[in-house]
Specification:
This protein has 200 residues and is mainly β. Helices cover 2% and strands 58% of the residues.
């Protein structure tokens, strides 16, 4: 989840009967959806001794403080581990993993029954998933081909807040409501809901 530390485990297994020493070069970068690297956020090298048929786990931790300011709106991180078997010329293995971080959900609560030409109140709740405060918070609510921009108070670390939003549906049938939450540390956290409007 975006805002939390990331923990990964690299599993190395020696499938042969010979003792092996493996040098592991690990790196992590924030990337775009095109896989183009934006910034390298982690680099580490370690050496692992593996006896015959032995397996070992290497834990990799990427704190939020490493990736937070380098993440794009794609919220993608590419982690690679280049594993080289020592004293065996040219025996290398590259392991790659792309992580797509999840946004905290926007929660939209609607009444059980929504009736045409009758005012209805929705509850929209939103959160700051980060371990630091966020400012310049804005909710953009799109409904019935209209957009309403709502400026919100700053949010403390990990704080969740909510607003109540009133509107009157002018026709029966399905209505699409879209909510887009942005602030100074991240942008475009989206929430959607389809509202079924009943006849009077």
């Amino acid at each position: 989840v975006f805002g939390k530390d990331i923990t990964l485990i690299l599993i190395l297994n020696n499938l042969s009967f010979d003792h092996k020493t493996v040098k592991v070069d690990m790196s992590a970068s924030t990337i775009l959806y095109t896989r183009r690297a934006v910034a390298e956020i982690l680099k580490a090298t370690t050496s692992v001794d593996l006896r015959s048929k032995q397996g070992k786990h290497i834990r990799i931790k990427i704190p939020y403080s490493y990736y937070g300011k380098y993440l794009t709106t794609d919220k993608r991180i590419q982690v690679t581990a280049l594993c080289e078997v020592m004293h065996m010329h040219g025996v290398k293995l590259l392991v790659e993993k792309t992580i797509i971080l999840e946004d905290t959900n926007i929660i939209i609560k609607i009444p059980r029954r929504v009736v045409v030409n009758k005012a209805v109140t929705l509850e929209i709740s939103y959160a700051n998933p980060l371990p630091e405060p966020v400012n310049r918070c804005v909710l953009l609510v799109t409904l019935m081909n209209q957009q309403v921009k709502i400026h919100l108070a700053r949010l403390a670390p990990r704080e969740r807040s909510k607003i109540h939003f009133e509107f009157t549906p002018r026709r029966t049938g399905p209505l699409q409501l879209q909510v887009d939450f942005s602030c100074d540390k991240f942008s475009h956290v989206k929430g959607f809901v389809t509202i079924a409007v009943a006849p009077a």
